[in-house]
Design brief:
Elements: H1 3-12, E1 16-20, E2 25-27, E3 35-41, E4 43-49, E5 55-62, E6 66-67, H2 70-75, E7 82-85, E8 89-95, H3 96-105, H4 108-133, H5 136-146, H6 156-163, H7 167-178
Length: about 180
């Protein structure tokens, strides 16, 4: 087990296990979050909804990831996105107050925070670069590499939303790749 995994496992001992069913919301848009969670099993997605009701998928968070609206939590402001369970899921929830207490008691939690922030920043930077510079087919191929087997767990509509394309375009790409 690498150091990040070990710290996440240790952090889980301070949380409370909760179950989520598909479509259940972990954090609502406009809600000021007071918790984050470690995904033990299942799958979540982050997404935005426009005033017209159109959804844009920001990311997918399968097992062994941490979910939350961290910037909203630390600033005490409303989340600008929604975090929704896509499958039956089990998480370990940790309150922000508990997190602050842990960090104040032992600075090794700062190492975990830095590692998580670095991972998130790297993922965000790559996603922005891919959306700006790569064609849809290459983005889809990258998605398959970065999220192995997720294409079997998520609808084409959600994958297309994540890739920034229409579902019909994704269907064409998949058809072309299979021939």
């Amino acid at each position: 087990m690498d150091n990040l995994s070990a710290l996440i496992s240790e952090l889980a001992t301070f949380g409370v296990e909760k179950s989520y069913i598909p479509n259940q919301i972990f954090i609502h848009e406009g809600q000021t979050p007071r918790k984050f969670a470690i995904v033990k099993s299942g799958l979540f997605r982050y997404y935005y909804v426009t005033s017209e009701g159109k959804e844009y998928t920001k990311g997918f968070m399968p097992e062994n990831n941490i979910i939350g609206s961290y910037s909203a939590m630390i600033t005490g402001s409303p989340s600008s996105f929604i975090i929704e369970a896509l499958e039956e899921s089990t998480v370990i929830e940790i309150t922000y107050n508990q997190w602050i207490k842990l960090r104040n008691e032992n600075n090794h939690w700062d190492k975990l925070l830095i590692a998580i922030l670095e991972k998130g920043y790297t993922t965000k930077e790559k996603r922005e670069r891919d959306l700006l510079l790569l064609n849809a087919e290459t983005r889809y191929l990258n998605f398959l590499k970065e999220y192995p087997n997720l294409d079997n767990r998520v609808t084409l509509t959600l994958i297309a939303s994540f890739l920034g394309i229409q579902p019909e375009s994704l269907s064409r790409i998949r058809k072309n790749l299979s021939t």
